[in-house]
Write a structure and sequence with these properties.
The protein is α+β, with helices and mostly antiparallel strands. The chain has twelve helices and 39 strands. Helix 4 links the parallel strand 22 and strand 23.
Length: 727
């Protein structure tokens, strides 16, 4: 049993992998948090329940000063009854009051894990997971707290269901997916801020006495913040120290709140952003929050990352492509932008076929009458003056070259200059009497309307049925403004942000049901919707519109803190780079792109013969090493900085018989040190042969003394080393 209830002490202990999590039912019915950390073998933890009266902390009406909600770590916190820290939930009644006070009523423990209707969620077989449902109640409004324990991973999945058992309508003003309290506060906060083309850079700072908030109010999870944070001990490194990671499986407005209070205790929570949310809950109706996942590591950030990677690969991504090698593709965007016709695309395909590339992806500009970004979004029919006869003849010729074919869509957006907007202006997010803001000359469709989702589904299906299209890139190139809907009454307007996300998820679900083998790559101006919620629907996401190899080092490093390599879209692009103007060696661009799904974003017909040979070698290496990268274990070895010139990472096969080590030195340092990297994850007593060199090293030696690197000759040099166990 991974979930134990000690009836005498009224203590729950949840054992997930090498971690334990414990809480108790207090005598007054509240649920107090006791412990989260390394694996325990006892439920005799009542001594951790410290009740100390504190000045200016009022006690509940049925308790004493020792029972103050303001001082006791809790599992799901109250509002308006004496806990002045950030609350887990607020429910407004018909009388206008929103004090919310939940107490234990019952619980149930069972094997398996329930799905969440309309939302992404982790999954597992009955022998892999066990679930606790903890029912709390505030009168006739119930809060069911779900805890699912993954027995072989240090992971607990949490979510909350709010049920209205009254005869009146209530309004949910806030419902966090989980609260995690600590009785001590000596932590650093780590999260992933960024911007367009500069996503998910790692930021770490010591917790201070404040409420620190990581959030998006943009309608999408955003480039600016990721729905993730970690609390790490001050001594935590890649390999040592404790790390607690929290991620939300959601692709819209979110909020993570981390509060270090007056008593040096920490409260954390994550869920839908309450600033842009409210939900009208009628009698006998229910609302389920998105799911959050908690990861504990006693092996530093690396251990946390490996747990997230295993969880997402095995228990979240459900695509047909999850464990399959993705085709090497070339996207025409940076080669042609909007300026193409069928013959130009065929020339790109012919060049791709000669080099061993496996798929041509046609990006923006194939639909409506789109020659630039000012028209035609929403008109998902072929631009006949560019592609005479539609897609079928083009795809047939591409397939005859033994290439697959993929296509770009931006389903959620619409142009003013489009047949769809002229026919259905009421399908656009808008507020009566206010002009609509534009981003990239486009408006946003109201995905909360079922008619909009159904129309998009039919239009996309018509295209996918017209030719053998095996991949789509799903883009979303602006954030939401004037968030109003013609179909929602005034008392439901604040539901719209969430209903938008539900509609977007529904469209994905409809497409996957009809085309189960379709490979979909998520995208939002690059990495603006790179979140765990999307991985439930797509196995890979375009990491960033910034394809510069040196910039990608930091972007992909931060992304890898919780997302696996197989989910990171990464391509070799042209130089000088279109985003930064930097020139980087072709070999280095390939090494960086191979840390993800791998492909090309350039005009192949402009390559000279030497560059073509490099492409052939890169593709051969991709096929040779992909099983290690996509299915193996990732170790971040170093990140270039003021005192270290090398960024290095290592993928190790599941059986530890193979390792691929990748290194890049962004900037040449005159009279610099003789560089080497210490490897990880190898078998200490196993002998490994260095490919192309013939030398053999014990795994123990490589992990302690390291692998020497060649002398640097110019900025941006990169190296790749393959090691194989000697039988």
């Amino acid at each position: 049993m991974s979930i134990v209830f000690d009836e005498n002490n009224r203590i729950f202990r949840l054992d997930a992998g090498d971690s334990s999590y414990a809480f108790l039912i207090e005598p007054n019915g509240y649920v107090a948090h006791l412990y989260y950390g390394g694996r325990l073998n006892t439920t005799d933890l009542r001594y951790l329940y410290r009740r100390t009266p504190r000045a200016f902390s009022p006690n509940p009406a049925d308790g004493t000063a020792e029972d103050s909600r303001d001082v006791i770590p809790q599992e799901y916190s109250t509002s308006g009854i004496g806990d002045y820290r950030v609350p887990s939930a607020k429910v407004r009644r018909s009388d206008g009051y929103n004090a919310t006070d939940m107490k234990y009523r019952s619980h149930r423990i069972y094997r398996g894990k329930p799905a969440i209707a309309g939302l992404p969620a982790t999954f597992g077989k009955e022998e892999e997971v066990e679930t606790l449902e903890l029912l709390l109640a505030d009168g006739d409004v119930e809060f069911t707290l779900f805890y699912t324990v993954f027995e072989h991973l240090p992971v607990i999945a949490r979510s909350v269901k709010v049920s209205n058992r009254s005869g009146e309508t209530v309004y949910i003003e806030k419902a966090a997916s989980c609260t995690l309290d600590f009785a001590y506060g000596d932590f650093d906060l780590l999260h992933l801020p960024g911007a367009w083309a500069r996503e998910r850079h790692v930021e770490r700072r010591k917790l201070n006495h404040s409420i620190q908030r990581i959030e998006s109010g943009r309608g999408l999870s955003s480039h600016q913040h990721n729905p993730f944070f970690a609390l790490v001990t001050p001594d935590a490194t890649e390999t040592a120290g404790e790390a607690y990671g929290v991620a939300l499986l959601y692709s819209g407005n979110f909020s993570a709140e981390i509060e270090l209070d007056q008593f040096d205790q920490v409260r954390t929570q994550i869920g839908i952003n309450p600033d842009t949310f409210e939900w009208k809950l009628g009698p006998n109706e229910e609302f389920h929050t998105p799911e959050a996942v908690l990861v504990y590591s006693a092996e530093g950030l690396g251990g946390m990352s490996r747990a997230f990677h295993d969880l997402f690969r095995r228990h979240l991504i459900r695509s047909y492509w999850r464990d399959r090698k993705r085709p090497v593709l070339v996207n025409n965007w940076e080669a042609t932008y909007f300026n193409f016709d069928a013959e130009k695309l065929i020339r790109i395909a012919e060049g791709a076929a000669r080099l061993g590339i496996e798929m041509l992806v046609l990006d923006d500009g194939w639909f409506g009458h789109r020659d630039d970004d000012r028209s035609s979004l929403g008109d998902w029919f072929v631009f006949e003056s560019k592609l005479k006869g539609g897609l079928a003849p083009l795809v047939k010729r591409v397939n005859e070259l033994e290439l697959k074919f993929g296509l770009w869509f931006e389903p959620e957006m619409v142009s003013r200059d489009s047949e769809l907007f002229r026919a259905h202006p009421e399908w656009v997010l808008s507020i009566p009497g206010r002009p609509c803001s534009e981003g990239r000359q486009q408006l946003v469709l109201d995905m909360s309307q079922p008619e909009v989702v159904d129309h998009l589904f039919r239009a996309i299906c018509a295209i996918l049925d017209s030719a053998p299209i095996e991949y789509i890139k799903w883009d979303a190139n602006r954030h939401l403004t004037e968030v109003g809907s013609a179909t929602l009454p005034a008392d439901r307007k604040k539901e719209l942000f969430h209903r938008y996300v539900l509609g977007m998820y529904r469209l994905h679900e409809l497409l996957l049901e009809r085309y189960p083998k379709l490979l979909i790559e998520g995208c939002s101006g690059g990495g603006g919707r790179f979140d765990a919620g999307m991985l439930y629907y797509v196995p890979q996401i375009w990491t960033s519109d910034d394809t510069d190899a040196i910039e990608r080092l930091e972007i992909q490093y931060g992304t890898s803190l919780l997302y696996p390599s197989s989910a990171m879209g990464a391509h070799v692009s042209a130089c000088p780079n279109h985003q930064t103007g930097r020139t980087t060696p072709f070999e280095t661009r390939g090494i960086v792109a191979m840390a993800g799904t791998f492909g090309y974003e350039l005009d192949l017909n402009k390559l000279d013969e030497a560059e073509c040979d490099i492409v052939r070698r890169q593709i051969a290496d991709y096929h040779r090493y992909n099983h290690i990268i996509a299915q193996g274990t990732l170790y971040r070895l170093s990140m270039a900085g003021a005192t270290n010139p090398i960024t290095a990472w290592e993928h190790v096969s599941a059986d530890r018989s193979e390792a691929l080590v990748s290194c890049v030195q962004p900037r040449n340092v005159p009279n610099g040190p003789l560089n080497h990297v210490r490897l990880r994850g190898l078998e200490p007593e196993t002998l490994y042969e260095l490919a192309g060199d013939g030398r053999c090293f014990l795994g123990d030696t490589l992990m302690k003394a390291g692998l020497p690197l060649p002398r640097v000759e110019s900025d941006g040099c990169g190296w790749q080393f393959y090691l194989k166990a000697v039988k």
